[in-house]
């Protein structure tokens, strides 16, 4: 029983299921955390109350903050962020005011990032927040960022992401001196776009809370070649969704293969334990919780379609980041980074790719 | 037995295994093609001859062109493309001179693309060649390009890729009116980098040999949402390698799961047929053959580590593109494209992403 002492704001209306998932997920997370935590539940009081009544332990330490406004999943971003009384916005405001230390939402990613950035602002020295996630690998889990917050990133922003990711790997995955790679299309030094080669030159020369291992490629994410993979938000988002797609396709083929004959169906019954173990190894619920790093407050995004267990994992990620003082450690490391001349020296880029 | 009438130049020294794989692969492809084809084998005569002697049918229609020079897999690109007497370069020259209609190599991708581009040049109207590949999906196979030839691409180049890919899907996959999507990080119109939104605007207005379906995301590649996915070479290469990595990881987990107990091992034996069917569905050998599209001559790249069956698939891809007159059809379609005002009108871009 870790002695937590924190308040978590939940956007109870976000995601495909709203309070039906969020409230029981909070109850599940509470059991795991063993107390010392308080929840603020933002959304439709009547709906939240109905679910809260079923969880007496949670009810004792949770408070409902009513609003009948919520952001639709297909709402236009520019309209969504202007609304001040949505469950998402109010939950983020709770972190801004200091009433809560973290906010978890399964709502629209774009709206959550834009609102969190607008309300919470970045940590000193950080130019852009990034979305980080955890990927399964053959070795240890891999932390990857940015998964979609920034379309394009210059070298200095990529270096900041390396710091955000390295501190995250230390805290979330207990890696003492995490190895960090920059995602590129070849591991040779001379390959890739200018900003990547410049970021590599900087990371090779600065002290930061990880070991820079140079360029890595797409397959290195799941090979576990490095503990942290750094990329821009466009590439990272494509990589994340390709990985989800291939996982999904494999499951589809696996099902087809084992359903194709009576004999193979029988073997699937006998191999139930093995197939279940496989499913557990690649279960997206275990990897749920996109961490919005670099903001002045902890913000975690749950996948919109997650069930109770999956959403509870996102809450635990937020609680862990708060408990271990993620932002304080990042602020310290960024200050150290900015104090180094080699962070600013950069490199004159010469391009050599395939073309 | 399709009546082929073509000559295929093979870089017999490329890849991890050289003539040991290339020569028997040519014999395998010949059986599949049923004759009407001739092979030019470029490389070390003595080594090639030893393998050729084992395949009498192939020997009758193959000619060895000796050179003791070959490009090393780790050779610097700039050095590699200057060498005029390598097996790769000489095989490409055979297409340039008209002696062969296609060239297949398992050698270094960068060197192959750079040399092919330098020697063969692009088709009229094409600014940049692209590497296209075929991905398995839940529905029909998906053609994707560019997989690594061009780091960044402007809107007009992406539109040309859409034409290259659509004609490819017609020929390779027999899709009459292939649907085409642009890879982005959201399917909404207003999302993504300027060049993507501009390419979308053009593709919505021009006539081209496919149906434009707007933006698609990473998971759509394996979902089979569209027949052709268009992207720049950086993103495409990352996507390809992430897909390979996740496939590899799943195989690793599957093995672990079925080896973890005596009981699950037994079920794996019983489920052998199903597991074999699964393996076949995701077997990279079936999808071997990176097509270098847009060049004045057909050039196909085999994965360096492919076995005989895998390399033979790359040969069949090349033979198919030649037999069905891929380049002639592309040249026609590009001319049609360039004749349309809407190809040049473009669009004034307004950026709205997450950030």
Helix content of chain A: 40-55%
Q: Any low-confidence stretches of chain A, pLDDT <50, length ≥5?
A: 347-355
Largest interface between protein chains, with number of residues from each side: A-B, 74 and 73 residues
Q: Please give the domain count of chain A.
A: 2
Biggest β-sheet description of chain A: 11 strands, mixed
Helix vs. strand class of chain A: alpha/beta
Q: Report the C-alpha radius of gyration of chain A, rounded.
A: 21 Å
Shape of chain A: globular
Strand content of chain A: 15-25%
Total count of strands of chain A: 11
Assign the CATH topology of the largest domain in chain A.
Isopropylmalate Dehydrogenase
**Distance N to C terminus of chain A:** 57 Å
Order of strands side by side in the largest beta sheet of chain A?
3-2-1-4-11-10-5-6-9-7-8
CATH domain class name of the largest domain in chain A: Alpha Beta
CATH superfamily of the largest domain in chain A: Isopropylmalate Dehydrogenase
The CATH architecture of the largest domain in chain A can be given as 3-Layer(aba) Sandwich
By oligomeric state, this entry counts as homodimer
Mean pLDDT of chain A: 90
Question: Could you explain the architecture of this structure?
Answer:
By secondary structure, chain A is α/β, with parallel strands linked by helices. Chain A has two domains: 1-120, Isopropylmalate Dehydrogenase (3-Layer(aba) Sandwich); 124-317 and 324-355, Isopropylmalate Dehydrogenase (3-Layer(aba) Sandwich), CATH 3.40.718.10. Chain A is built from 15 helices and eleven strands. Chain A has helices at 19-33, 45-52, 56-61, 77-80, 87-96, 109-120, 155-173, 194-205, 220-223, 233-259, 262-270, 272-281, 308-323, 326-338, 341-345, and strands at residues 6-11, 37-43, 62-66, 102-105, 130-135, 142-145, 179-183, 211-216, 228-230, 290-293, 298-301. Chain A has an eleven-stranded mixed β-sheet, with helices on both faces. The longest helix of chain A is centred in the last third of the chain and has 27 residues, at 233-259. At the A-B interface, helix 6, helix 9, helix 10, helix 11 and helix 12 of A face helix 6, helix 9, helix 10, helix 11 and helix 12 of B.
């Amino acid at each position: 029983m870790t002695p937590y002492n924190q308040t978590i704001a939940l956007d109870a209306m976000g995601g495909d299921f709203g309070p039906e998932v969020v409230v029981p997920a909070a109850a599940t997370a509470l059991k795991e955390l063993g107390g010392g935590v308080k929840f603020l539940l933002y959304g439709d009081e009547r709906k939240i109350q109905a679910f809260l009544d079923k969880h007496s332990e949670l009810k004792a330490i949770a408070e409902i903050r009513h609003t009948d406004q919520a952001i639709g999943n297909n709402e236009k971003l520019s309209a969504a962020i202007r609304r001040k009384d949505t469950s998402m916005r109010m939950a983020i405001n709770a972190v801004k005011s200091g009433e809560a230390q973290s906010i978890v939402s399964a709502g629209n990613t774009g709206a959550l990032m834009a609102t969190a950035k607008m309300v919470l602002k970045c940590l000193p020295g950080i130019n852009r927040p990034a979305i980080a996630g955890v990927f399964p690998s053959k070795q240890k889990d891999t932390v990857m960022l940015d998964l979609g917050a920034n379309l394009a990133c210059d070298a200095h922003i990529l270096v900041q992401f390396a710091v955000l990711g390295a501190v995250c790997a230390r805290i979330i995955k207990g890696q003492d001196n995490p190895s960090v790679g920059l995602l590129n299309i070849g591991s040779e030094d001379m390959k890739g776009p200018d900003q990547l080669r410049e970021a590599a030159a900087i990371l090779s020369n600065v002290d930061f809370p990880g070991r820079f291992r140079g360029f890595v490629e797409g397959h290195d994410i799941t090979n576990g070649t490095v503990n942290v993979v750094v990329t821009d938000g466009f590439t990272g988002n494509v990589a994340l969704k390709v990985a989800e797609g291939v996982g999904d396709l494999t499951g589809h083929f696996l099902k087809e293969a084992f359903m194709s004959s009576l004999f193979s169906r029988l073997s699937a019954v006998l191999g139930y334990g093995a197939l279940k173990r496989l499913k557990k190894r690649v279960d997206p619920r275990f990897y749920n919780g996109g961490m919005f790093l670099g903001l002045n407050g902890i913000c975690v995004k749950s996948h919109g379609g997650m069930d109770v267990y999956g959403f509870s994992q996102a809450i635990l990620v937020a609680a862990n980041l708060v408990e271990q003082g993620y932002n304080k450690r990042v602020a310290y490391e960024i200050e150290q980074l900015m104090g180094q001349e080699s962070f600013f020296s950069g490199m004159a880029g010469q391009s050599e790719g395939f073309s």
